[in-house]
Design brief:
Blueprint (H helix, E strand, L loop, with lengths): L15 H10 L6 H15 L1 E2 L13 H7 L1 E2 L1 H14 L4 E9 L5 H7 L3 E10 L5
Parallel strand pairs: 1-2
Antiparallel strand pairs: 3-4
Helix pairs in contact: 1-3, 1-4, 2-4, 3-4
Pfam families: Transglut_core (PF01841)
Protein name: Transglutaminase family protein
Organism: Christiangramia aestuarii
Length: 130
């Protein structure tokens, strides 16, 4: 479980901007579940989702980069939520899955050349024993 609490290359939970964002966003409750919900909404609403900012530069996958840019796509946003959770001592990891997005715009479908979003990023948090 310890590995899901540590800062890392991309899940840079010890980066000053991530620490500040997590502390500001975690809410006042001492309950990890309440903090997780508050962090989820903070990442969802505080960093604009933009699937067109994809880059092959590994730096763009860092949680701190997503915060500093103010926008990102699903993978860095998932990494950001994991980083914030880890800062708050909530074990977290990201997952990747291929998903079909029936709400995608024609522009995005054309860019992807598919209606399947390969490697869609999501976050798993260990809460209440599961």
């Amino acid at each position: 479980m310890q590995s899901y609490l540590q800062s890392g290359r991309f899940v840079d939970s010890d980066h000053p901007v991530v620490v500040e964002f997590a502390e500001k966003s975690r809410g006042n409750s001492a309950k990890p579940r309440d903090q997780a919900v508050a962090l989820y909404y903070a990442v969802r609403d505080g960093v604009r989702y933009n699937p067109y900012v994809f880059s092959r530069d590994p730096q763009t996958l860092k949680a701190s980069h997503a915060l500093q840019q103010g926008e990102s796509y699903c993978v860095p946003k998932a990494i950001l939520l994991a980083a914030c959770a880890r800062h708050c001592r909530i074990p977290a990891r990201i997952g990747l899955a291929d998903v079909r997005n029936h709400l995608a715009t024609p522009r995005l479908l054309e860019a992807l050349r598919s209606e399947v979003f390969a490697m869609h990023g999501y976050t798993e948090l260990y809460l209440e024993g599961r």
